[in-house]
Structure formats: C-alpha cells, structure tokens
Amino acid sequence: MTSQDTLSQIARCAWRIRRYAVRMGEVQGQGYVGQALGYADVLAVAYGHAMNFKPEDPEWEGRDRFLLSHGHYAIAHYAAMIEAGIIPESELETYGSDDSRLPMSGMATYTPGMEISGGSLGQGLPIAVGIALGLRHQKNPAFVYNSMSDGELDEGSVWEAAMSAAHHGLGNLICMVDINNQQADGPSTKVLGFEPLADKWASFGWHVQRVDGNHLPAVLRAFDTARNLTDAKPRVILCDTLMGKGVPFLEAREKNHFIRVDPPEWQQALAILDETAPEGAQA
Amino acid sequence: MNTVADKKPRLTTSAMIASIASEGQRVQAAPFGKALVAYAAEHPEVVGMTADLAKYTDLHLFAQAYPERFFQMGMAEQLLMGAAGGMAKTGLVPFATTYAVFGTRRAYDFIHQVIAEENLNVKICCALPGLTTGYGPSHQATEDLAMMRAIPGLTVVDPCDALDIEQAVPQIAAHQGPVYMRLLRGNVPLVLDEYNYKFELGKAKMLREGSDVLVISSGFMTMRTLEVAKQLEADNVKVAVLHCPTIKPLDEATILAEVRKPGRLVVVAENHSVVGGLGEAVASLLLREGAAPAKFRMLALPDAFLDAGALPTLHDRYGISAEKMSKRIKGWLSQ
To answer: Do the beta carbons of residue B40 and residue B62 sit within 8 Å?
Structure first.
C-alpha cells in the first residue's frame, strides 16, 4: 500500500469516527462531541494504522493497550472501537442509556476494549507505567498507549509517572496528549499554564513530538516515529487539536468544555460531514 | 527559664521504625519480608513494588532475593498504586508497600478507582499502623482502617504479631482480589504461637475463654489484651479474647455467637481511631442483628490529632497501654 493509499484509508476512518460520534451525541442529546471531533484524526491513526489488536478478541495478550485516561472522551473512543470492529455499530444506539455497555465515562468493567476506568483524571499514565513494566517483565512486545487531555497535565500524578517512565526506560510506552486548550473552568493555559510543554516532557527524559493533531500526515509520521524508535525512553506525542473539527459551526462555537448542541444541529452536523466526505468514504 | 529541674526523666521519642516489642518479649525479625520471599519462590507472578520504603517495610529482603521482580517507584504513592494496578492487569500479583499514612491518605483515589473498582490482584501492605510511631499525625495512620473499610470489595487485615503476618502473607497472595494489610516490621513480637492459633483469612479466633469480659480485638491490641487478661486474672476477672485480624469482610457469625453468650462486658480494642474501625464495625453489626449486649465499650484511639513523643508515654496517654487498659476495663465492670 502506498503512503497516499494509507492516508486516504485513514482519512475515511477518521470521517467515520466523526460520524459515529455525532450519531451517539444525537442519541443522548449531549456529549463531549467537540472533543470527539477534535481527536478523531489521532484515534484514526491509532486504531486504523498504528496499533496491533484483534477486533474479535479484545483480551488477546499480544494486543497493544490503549488507555483512555480522559474517561469523558468515551464517545470518541467508542466511535473508534466501532470503526475498528471491536464494538458493533448497532450498539451505538445505546450510548449513555441505562444498562448500556457504553456509559458516558469510559469504564473497563463495562466495555470490551476499554482497558481502564478513566475519568479520575491523572490516573492513566501511572497505570500505563505499571502495564508497560509488567509487559516488559513478561517479554511481551506490545506497546502501551496512554491517551490523555491537556487539562490532566494539572495532576501531579502525571509527572510522578513521567519521571518513573523515563527512569525505567519504558520504550514500550507512548503517550498522546490532546491539546485543545479547554478544560472545565476555561482555557487550559488560563486555568493552569503548562507551556513550554515540549520542553517539560523532554526535560523529564521523554522523546517528544508536537504535531498538528488534525493534520493526518503529521499524526501518521509521529506515530510511526514513536513506534520505530529504538531508544529505551518513553515517547510522547503532543497533539494540538481543534474542538469540533470537521463541522465548521461547531468549530466556531464559543469554546467550552461541554459544547452546546441544539437538537436540529445533530442532523445538520451529519449533513456537513457527508458533504465533505473523503473520496470513497461510505457511512 | 529553667528554675526547677525535672525529677522524673523524660522519655524521648524513639526511632520512627522502632520495634513495638516490649523489653524481654520474644521477637522474630522481618516476618513479612521472609514470608514473601518464601511464597514467591514457588510463585513467579509475585512482584514487589515500593515508594522509597523497601527497607522500612521489610521488602528489601524480597528485593535482594529477586532483584528482577522488584520495582522501585520512588517517593510517589499515587504512582505506586496506579502502577501496581497496571502490573496486576498484566497478570502479575504485586505487593505494594509504603507507610500506612501515605498509602491510604495520599493515594486513596488510586486504590479506589484503579485497584478496587476493577477488583485487581494488588496486595497493599503498609507499615506504621495506628499509633506505632511517635512522629505525630504525619506518620500516625489512625484512620486507615476507616478509609479502607469504606472501599467496596477491599479485604482489610490487621495482624497481631509475627506469626499472624507470616501466615497471612500466602493467604492474601492466594486471595483473588485486592487486599490492604497493616504491617508490623523489624523485630516483631511473637505471641500467638502460645495459643494454638492459626491465621485464617476472614476468620476471628478465640484465643482464651472468660466469663466476665469479652474483648474483640485486632492488631497489636490483641497481644496487649492477652497481657491484660493475665493481669486481671489475679484480680479474679475472667477475660475472653476474640482475635479478629480480618476487619473486612468481618467474621460476623463468630462475633455474634460470642457476644450472645450472656453476662459479659463486651469491649472492642483496636489500634485505630474510634471512628470507623473495628469498634464501629462490630457495633453496627450488633445493633443490626439485635445482639447489642448490656454493656459495650470501645477501647480505641481518640478522634483527634495525636501527640508526638515516646510510644510508652503516648500509649499511656491515650489509654492503650496494658496498665491503662486494665484500669479502664475494671472501671467499666464496676459501673
């Protein structure tokens, strides 16, 4: 497969992830759809290109682990796992409903393929360190991907884990930080400034890449680089993303942790996605 | 200004990790570390993790025996608990050690969310339980049992002596699910070998019979109660001792059966705050089951930030020295 083919395939994958997320948002009438649209490209590269897994066997020992530390991104993660064939598309209709396997915040005990119960922010990376140590100890070559938000950088436990991952030389650990500069009380940089972020991670002993998280070729290269490095150091991919990406009226909406979407707008968002579908994409 | 010289020499605070053994008491060195090394010989899935306190939790013996299975996580308790959960998710059985204050108070949400919510096989073993150091509230874990009891599905163990610890280690390791165990380290008193006793996870055991008082106790308060029971025998007060090292799940059947034997003052003795420990667990059980005895007392640490100082001074001040316990029990009997 040529590189262009790969990119086209991942673009279609990201487009479908966006559609699934919007459809789930419509079911529930709410949801962190702004984050899902913003992060869809990163998830498309992770599940559509980088990670090893068997959709029919989410417990397969050799699988790469994807840890959703920011549990409220579950809507995005479910969309990616539907796209990956781990969760049936029909289950999308149950999102956030009573007795559903797809609760609003991701939980390991509810959903196949959901490795951890995130949501208490700052826990994913410490868990990832433990899994990476455990896998290496047992000579399992799988990677551990920890996915987190920029707001989580406020939590001290993230930096405990960052120090530890470098100290233990965890070359099997890749961390993605979604930088959309939005957390509960406002812009992340105003709530608790985290820049210069690349320098921070580098000084903690990590291999650092900072990319436009909505530019697929850049995200693709970053994942390939992170996987192919031979250094015994953990890797972080800092992904600057735009909330609502792909649906211009949501991109332009006043930025808020929880973007308001009015009932008719779900269908309008789907219509816009369909109008801008990549070549060859099918819902 | 020093105008009057103290007549009585003041005791000084002992080292933070000083043994709680009294002078002349039989001891065993590092029962936790030795038991874990022995168990791990046949169980390669067991790994050791600590937050910069291997030496002070006797985990250094494990580290020496199995360096490739020992993981130093640094002075970072949230990381310790989170990573222990991660390790368990890969099929290993981590023993994670630190001091009880740091493990429980600082890392509570990590135990709750990462370890307990997924019922992961992590064994949290924490030294300096209750009032076993004179360093003040920063190091005195007087509410750890209350916090750990409140977490669904977490097994909570408060062993008495070296024998209890030695026998508990393989059982908590084999137990499927998370465990919090209080740890006595260094030279740990050995007492229970005189009582035809075996540790059994989830079980309370009668150590001696007595018709006047029933003391239900855990941790080192059991050995202290046994000492008190011998002293009171001289005054013709007969004290029964029910040792209850598993705080959760509580051995309700044994406790109810003993409490329902009539005519005894019932005392719960524990090295823990009166809030939320064994005493309140037993009290709520007895009320719930309509088994409240005529007289029920709690012999525990006060709901307060405790003083710094020498342990004998502090145990006396807070009523958990053998002498004070005897006086209090006799006082309650005469009320």
So the answer is: yes
- Distance separating alpha carbons of residues B293 and B30, to the nearest angstrom: 39
**Among A108, A157, A161, whose Cβ lies nearest the Cβ of B118?**
A108
Instruction: Show the beta-strand stretches assigned E in B133-232.
Output: 155-157, 179-183, 187-189, 205-208, 213-217
Residue (of A146, A120, A156) closest to B109 by Cα position: A120
ipTM for the complex? 0.95
> What is Dmax (Cα atoms) for chain B?
67
Instruction: Give how far B2 is from chain A: nearest CA, Å.
Output: 47
Band (pLDDT 50/70/90 cuts) for residue B6 is: low
pLDDT in tens, B32-51: 999 999 999 999 999 999 99
pLDDT tens, residue by residue, B259-300: 999 999 999 999 999 999 999 999 999 999 999 999 999 999
pLDDT tier for residue B22 given thresholds of 50, 70 and 90: confident
Interface of A with B (CB under 8 A): 107-109, 115-117, 119-120, 122-123, 125-135, 137-138, 140, 156-157, 160-161, 163-164, 167-168
- Check if the beta carbon of residue A79 is closer than 8 Å to that of residue A20: yes
**Residue B112 has what DSSP assignment?**
I
Classify residue B13 by burial, with Cβ atoms within 10 Å: 0-12, 13-18, 19+: middle
* Tens digit of each residue's pLDDT (9 = 90 or more) over A13-52: 999 999 999 999 999 888 899 999 999 999 999 999 999 9
The residues, ordered by sequence, that sit 6+ positions from A163 with a Cβ below 8 Å of its Cβ are A204, A205, B74, B76
Give the A:B interface size as CB pairs under 8 Å: 101
Cis peptide before A126 (omega within 30 of 0): no
